[in-house]
Amino acid sequence: MNKIIIYGSKYGSTEKYAKELARRINVEAIEYDKIKNINDYDYIIYLGALYAGGVMGLVKTLKKIDDLKSKEFVIVTVGAADTTDSNNVNNIENGINKQIPEEIYNKAKIFHLRGAIYYSKLDVKHKIMMKLLYNKAKNIPEEKQTPEIKLMLETYNKEADFVDFNTLDNIINVL
Ligand SMILES: Cc1cc2nc3c(=O)[nH]c(=O)nc-3n(C[C@H](O)[C@H](O)[C@H](O)COP(=O)(O)O)c2cc1C
Questions:
Q1: Where are the domains of the chain?
Q2: How many angstroms separate the alpha carbon of residue 116 from the centre of ligand 1?
Q3: Can you give the pTM of this predicted structure?
Q4: Has residue 1 got a pLDDT over 90?
Q5: What residues contact residue 25 under an 8 Å CB cut-off, 6+ apart?
């Protein structure tokens, strides 16, 4: 199988995972907006950072593929949310289901990793988005806060780094 790792990363945590995976399985890793010959590959391992539920670059990448049916896909999300919480995983997967064709969603092997968020490094647009979310979340009574909201309130304006290369093992096992 002709494999390729493609990734969408804004601040680098997804890129770190993609490059480490590339090193471990000896497959090339390339950014989603730099890939030119995507149709030459038949096994696509896509790693994308989560932004408001969207998997960065995934939809654009799928649009470049002529014959989706003939390809195999592994989709890996990288987000801040705790992926040992099944509610978080359900939210992420429902989001992916809405973004990509049903046939791809059904056949893809899907994994979720945790990334990092460094508030001081966010661009202006993301700082504003997080501030709006924070202002809304802080007024939610504690008993009604989901784990995702709690995490956001706890880490707001700080640095939170959950990158753990050991979590790549589950993915490598199915490749
Ligand atoms: C504006 C914004 C929206 C985000 N939305 C989500 C989200 O919906 N789900 C999630 O788990 N993480 C979310 N995150 C956290 C990022 O996915 C996390 O920081 C990820 O590691 C970023 O990857 P990157 O460093 O490769 O860009 C968000 C972060 C920002 C700044």
A1: 3-117+160-174
A2: 8
A3: 0.97
A4: no
A5: 3, 172, 175
